[in-house]
Task: structure prediction
Amino acid sequence: MIDVLLYALLAGLGVAAVTGPLGAFIVWRRMAYFGDTLAHSSLLGVALALLLSVNLTLSVVVICLLLALLLVMLQQQQTLASDTLLGILSHSSLAIGLVAMALMPDVRIDLMSLLFGDLLTVTPRDVITIYLIGTIAIGLIIWLWKPLLTMTIHEELARVEGVPVTAVRTALMLIIALEIAIAMKVVGVLLITALLVIPAATARRFANTPEKMAIYASLTGSLAVLIGLSASWFADTPAGPSIVLSAAILFALSLLKRE
Result:
């Protein structure tokens, strides 16, 4: 029983460490809806994994990456407003995933755990996958930190300074896609964006530099994991929603701080 709790804690902290800096950029660049779209598409990845009998995590990663690239291409064409495009893809991919799984009656699926996470069923293999992909994501964020920050502050100025804006924006979307794919096990399809946005929004009230905000967001997310997992363990509540609720409470408490 202690092993189960340890694996859940390690997985949650591993996800929170990466969602902190990523969430900071999502808040700065107002990309929350983009995160929702990728999160919903992960359910399509689950359906394809079951249909093709392939590794679930790999399938979700591939689908999220492909959708991120598709979004980049469609946004460049500018035939539709970004929020309209995201809304169409978000709900379409979620609907396709749900319908596909409904058409597989012989496959037993715990839909609640997919939608809201099932942290207490995390295995050592899941933990290794989370930390492996998380390390890659953190490494890419550190490598791209300066151009990402420059582009976030002023995109046209970044172009003048020689920043390959399209390539950097695409890289950010792909990193977010990677993290969403591995975070699904922790908080589920419907709550992934909350873990990206809420800790970053909380950290924003205390940080006076971008670097501090990224670090504080990771720490806030980790604290939410600790509190939420404890509540889930002792009060027998769902782990994913408990973590998100803990993050929301921390944000509410941060509002007490005077500007």
Summary: The CA atoms of residues 3 and 166 lie 44 Å apart. Residues 2-254 form a domain with the ABC transporter involved in vitamin B12 uptake, BtuC fold (CATH 1.10.3470.10).
